Amino acid sequence: MLGWEYHGEKAFEYLLGTHKYNMFYRVLFSLVVYLGCTQTLNLVWSFSDIANALMAIPNLICMLILSKEIAQDIKAFQPEIDNRHTEKCSEQNTYVQDVK
Length: 100
Known about the structure:
This protein is mostly helical. The chain has four helices and no strands.
């Protein structure tokens, strides 16, 4: 829980551009943790599923907006991926031949 609080606090600090509101975040986080501890497990998992789904929406939108750039980067990087795969396959074949 402390790790999640720390990462959330740092994200909150980054988004606001200052650390002045960290105490507000800590109090809010503590209240949410308390509420989560006092609710039914089914409700907590449902909220978790909804929160994860909502986090996917901005990521999908950004991927659609950046799809052209992503395709260009993949096309530019593909030869290196192919070279690594070829090297790995040749290393494995060498190892298999050495074992025989």
